Fold each of these.
Amino acid sequence: MSRHNVRVKAKYPHGFIKNLSKSKIDDRQENLHMFTKVVMEKQALRERYIKLMNDAERAVGRKEAIYLLRDAEIIWQKINS
């Protein structure tokens, strides 16, 4: 009987036996979940930013909105750095 397809189990100091491959999969899924959450939050901020800039242009006019946009760009760069 070949042992090449047998999963490796490790004994931890606390005496528990845990499947290492399942642990790695759980860590990858958790990392992917956190990454997805961060990307979705940034996308929501981008959408809100664009909406605010469009509203500013309609409210104060194009010239004043350009000044607001420049100030907002400076703030946006600080947030992303």
Amino acid sequence: MPDFEALIRHQQLKQPTTNKRLKVVDSPNFEEEKNEEAIIRQSGLLVNFFGGFLGSVIGTLTILFLYMNEYLPLDLLKLK
């Protein structure tokens, strides 16, 4: 069995110093981020709309193909 207490002591002794773990970074420029977010939101809406539309067309054509080739029997006229 491994000596877990010795392993924990070894890990505690080899921990990096605070200066190595935490470093100071430059303050971000929030004005540039706001402009990028507006562009991403507007284009994201269009991409989502056309993606959903394309997905619905592909799904409809797939179901129609399966129905026409009798892989998917739909008895819609028999419903009461």
